[in-house]
Design a protein that fits this description.
2 helices, alpha+beta, two-stranded antiparallel sheet, two-stranded antiparallel ribbon, globular, 11% helix, binds iron/sulfur cluster, 94 residues, single chain
């Protein structure tokens, strides 16, 4: 009998100064801290070390590091409360 493995798309990459990916895409992710419920989905599924949960004003919220955000929209897709928006970088705005 063959075994089937199920992989969930979580990653845990490390930050390195040599592998900054923040200038790859045309957009960056931004978190609405009022809406964020700190579920950690964006942290789990972000393919880069670009999102972390931090303590702010007595609550935990997701914060995006634009040095590493490559604008892939994964966090936007998995956020259950629509707390993430994608914005075109200024240099790509007409
Ligand atoms: S857009 Fe992609 S790289 Fe940027 S924070 Fe979201 S999941 Fe991470
Ligand atoms: S997925 Fe959305 S609600 Fe959950 S931590 Fe990230 S921004 Fe906050």
């Amino acid at each position: 009998m063959s075994k089937m493995k199920l992989y969930i798309g979580a990653s845990n990459p490390a930050k390195t100064s040599q592998m900054k990916t923040g200038d790859w895409g045309t957009e960056w992710a931004y978190v609405d801290e009022e809406k964020c419920i700190a579920c950690g989905q964006c942290v789990t599924f972000c393919p880069e070390p670009a999102v972390e949960l931090v303590e702010k004003g007595g609550k935990k919220v997701a914060v995006v590091d634009h040095d590493y955000c490559k604008g892939c929209w994964v966090c936007y897709t998995v956020c259950p409360v629509e707390a993430i928006r994608m914005e075109t970088k200024d240099i790509y705005k007409l």
